[in-house]
Design goal:
With 110 residues, the protein is mostly helical. 84% of the residues lie in helices and 0% in strands. Helix 1 crosses helix 2 and helix 2 runs antiparallel to helix 4. The protein is elongated.
Length: 110
Amino acid sequence: MDFLNALYQDPLLYISYLFAFVGAMGGFLFISGLSSGFRHIFTYSEEWDHMQHTRTRAVWGILVCMVTLGLWEIVRVIIGQAPLSYLWLSLLMLTPLWIPWLKKLAGGGH
């Protein structure tokens, strides 16, 4: 019950923890894609076509970081402009818009 009280009193703290975690995962994803492709940068390799997964990993890492930063700014603006009760109401009302995108993302985009 103390967690729910703390969440209700200061939700921005826990939202920022979540966004920091997701942003760190995006950063690690970018670093892993970039560092696994270093070998090809300094040596000529016949496997240029086989390096697609490293480029994809690096691009996804940057994308996750950018989306996380954008969502954080949206949350900051909403909290700065509207009362806290409107934040929960707007997140609840926007949830149906995210469901098709999440299904498409989980299904591989088909």
